[in-house]
Amino acid sequence: MQRYLIGEPHWRAGIFNPEWDDQYIRLLNVALTRARHRLIIVGDFSFIQAKAKKAFIGAKFIPFLLENYPCANPLDILPYGFATRASKTHKIIYGGETEPHSDRIVVTQDSFYGMFVKDLNDAKHRIVIYSAFISESRLGMLETPLRAARERGISIYVITKPITERKKREQDNYEKFESSFDIWGITVVHKRGMHEKLIFIDNDILWSGSLNPLSYSNTREIMERRKNKTVIEDFAGTLRLDDLIGGYNEGTPICPICNSEVVASEGKNEPFYWRCIQKDCYTRSIDQPLLKDGIIKCFNCGSDVEFGEWGGKPAWRCINNKRHRQRINRSHLRLPKMREKIPKGKLKELDKYYGL
Length: 356
Description:
This protein is an alpha+beta fold. It is built from 13 helices and 13 strands.
């Protein structure tokens, strides 16, 4: 294969400018037609499309390539273990050899990423990242150490807002981000209304502060690093972290009523509760058992329930312990097997009350 090098200064100056399209179309045509046996085009296609939306290369050329020719991430075709080896160089480039000078330090974002990359490379079992926002530049920087951690068998969870909470113009990008996480083997956990900015590295290190770890900011944000198991356990216990990520052990939680996604949502009296993304559909508390086969069970002992009243209001009453009761929610009335348990007169009243 022969290579044709386009003048670099002009390429950088005008490739994203639609006013230069005529010149670069000619240059691209000359460069591409020089190939005789094989042509491999290397580039950050997502970046080009984002920065050259109105120029020929971003609006037409890259989409044409993606639609008509195979596209591969280099890390997917290189030998297994490459990400781990690359991460050693990566952490040096980003200052990842920096050693924290104490078990508790406060740093600005200038120092944060070097230490964070080192923590990612030193992780042994699990990484949990709370980041409400994600940026392409930051994700590109962290791809290598994250993929290297997955190669070492480390479980990684990214807790972020669901796509439905993003601005419409951002949704396509966030879908791409989450698709990348899926390819890398990282579990995405959606939480509505989240605001936490945290990182758990095993049961050993906690990062907390004002910086979204997976997003770039040009403001002077700060992060605190704690190496204290008691503090980490307090944070994890307060957030019910194990219950949150445990809900994804068998894949993305699915609504038993409409088959939509079920996400964690900010709660008033508990860190979160589970809620279907469809309005006025299924909800359950953290401690309420999973709904299986369309049947609600007692959340205290797991026994069957029957229709009854609690404080003058309709409720499900445990058949083995009458003191175990739970209120009837609107979503419960969408379950045919539970509707059968309610007397017709009461069912009619409840349907009217809930507008069903």
